[in-house]
Amino acid sequence: MDSFFTASKVLWFLAVPSNLLVILAALGLVMLGLRLRRAGAALVTIAVAGWLVFGFSPASSFILSPLEERFPLFTDDGTPVTGIIMLGGSEKPDIGNARGVPTFGEAGERPIAFAALSRRYPQARLAFVGGSGRLVRNDEAVEAHMIRMSLPDLGIPEARVEFEEKSRNTAENAEFARAVLKPKPGERWLLVTSAAHMPRAVGCFRKVGFDVVAYPVDFQTIGPDRLDEPFSRAADGLDKTDMGVREWVGLVVYYVTGKTSALFPAP
């Protein structure tokens, strides 16, 4: 198993903000039980403060906004489109396979945009890129299965879509997509993924020599002038904090390990 992939999954589980706050609180309670009152109280206080700040305050919006604003919305300037690539990540294959119906998470805008673009550019090649990001792979939990199940509802013939089903992370998305699609110089490929994920995704594609045009979707912030609104549910703020921190950490790690072309890729 790829050591980078394994390490990234294990370390991220421990470092994801919402998990880290739970770990700190648990350690604090253990220390209190061991009569290490000062250290235990400090950890519990930090955890509670983190839940309050990142759960209810607009902190997560300020974390996400620079990522989402990095690449502008796509504007059709009349240049022919060779192909459209949608990255996996919006699918919930475990639930979908068990229920027998297509199931998607928050990034459900990706297949909607994919379907709309397929109709706007009927001559363009279509590609879905994504296997399974699980540490222990389950062949049934492959993102492509959900997309295949969804194609009739999306109005896209399955024969029109090319699938890449082995990639486990964004770096492999780019590498394997290039191998499958074999882009030629001068071609124009649109890349559909979440706006916050777009900088890292574009960086990975550029690194492998696959020039793509960003088509960001799945925005989580209203806009740079509306970032000060608090959340009514702590779960919402914590979820967006996890999302934003994941991308910032991913950008740094991918750049340091040579998987992206720049620390913060730009248009």
Tell me the count of domains: 2
Number of strands: 5
Strand order of the largest sheet: 3-2-1-4-5
Biggest sheet overview? 5 strands, parallel
Number of helices: 10
CATH fold title of the largest domain:
Rossmann fold
- Can you give the mean pLDDT? 91
Summed up:
Helix 2 runs antiparallel to helix 3, helix 4 crosses helix 10 and helix 8 crosses helix 9. It is built from ten helices and five strands, in the order ααααβααβαβαβαβα.
How does this structure look, described?
The protein has about 270 residues and is α/β, with parallel strands linked by helices. It folds into 2 domains: about 5-70 and about 230-255, no CATH class; about 75-215, Rossmann fold. The chain has 10 helices and 5 strands, in the order H-H-H-H-E-H-H-E-H-E-H-E-H-E-H. It has helices at about 5-15, 15-35, 35-55, 60-70, 95-100, 110-120, 145-155, 170-180, 200-205, 235-255, and strands spanning about 85, 125-130, 160-165, 190-195, 215. It has a 5-stranded parallel beta sheet with strand order 3-2-1-4-5, sandwiched between helices. Helix 2 (about 15-35) packs antiparallel against helix 3 and helix 3 (about 35-55) packs across helix 10 (about 235-255). The longest helix is centred in the last third of the chain and has 23 residues, at about 235-255. The two termini are about 35 Å apart. About 40% of the residues are buried. The mean pLDDT is about 90.
